[in-house]
Amino acid sequence: MHKTAVIGHPVKHSKSPLIHNYWFKKHGIDGEYTAIDIHPDNLKQGVDDIIEKGYRGFNITIPHKETIMNLCDDIDDTARVIGAVNTVRIDDGKLTGFNTDGFGFLENIRRGIAGYNFTNKNVVLIGAGGASRAIIHGLKSENVAGITIVNRTFEKAEKLAAEFDVDAVPWQKRNDVLAQCRLLVNATSLGMTGQPNLDINITHLPLHAVVNDIVYAPLMTPLLKQARQNKHPFVTGIGMLLYQAAQAFNIWFDVMPDVTDELQQKILDS
Ligand code: NAP
User: Fold this and answer.
1) To which H or E segment does residue 33 belong?
2) Is 190 close to ligand 1, i.e. is its CB under 6 Å away?
3) DSSP state for residue 118 in the 8-state scheme
């Protein structure tokens, strides 16, 4: 039996067990994926336990995505540049760290808009948190024309922009940068159930510009509803979760699993 898990604190809410256990069944792999709550003070002990029990690997969620890097024997280039690891593979007790969030983001848009090509697109990215780092890294690998970060805390946007050699504009200017935008991404928690809405006016966004929200609860966020109403092509956030998981599964088992409508529905219903 191949053992895998997600570690975090808290971790009860994670959809990852549902996703990976679905794929074990679907692909006829004798495996099990569980959620393991590890307090930050016990990270090393918790990971040592996992190694000792012979796990194939594990995913990492809040608050361990950065600290897990100290326990990895090797870290792939993508995770190193992003500065966070969300997937670990264990080979003979040695830990290799990966980050699959950027892949999840790109693949979601490619699948959501058939034939989508990022090359030469101007991107406006709202948010400068952990998800934004992975998204910027992914977008830069696709030769986009430019990335403009807009964030409530401007200093964070500026710092990120300097690190990745992209642009940053203050929060108050978020509507002004949309006229040149071809891909608009919300990577803040705004619009999530229980959170305030993202206050943005997309009237000047060109009609063919794609709108993506990485928030997926609700699936149709207020931003995406606005996009639908204004007839923009749009992509929901659920696929980013599924494709980042798919790449992790592939890292562990060399199998790229199917992201099916049935699986998507199971997550939305859970
Ligand atoms: P994070 O590191 O905590 O960053 C949060 C971001 O949201 C920051 O840019 C923050 O701005 C902004 N924000 C929060 N409250 C705000 C408010 N009231 N007004 C304006 N901006 C606000 O979180 P993260 O890991 O990047 O994740 C961001 C969101 O993406 C979360 O909702 C998460 O669930 C979702 N997500 C989805 C996927 C997926 O697979 N679909 C993957 C990763 C994350 P400040 O810098 O000003 O605080």
Assistant:
1) strand 31-37
2) yes
3) -
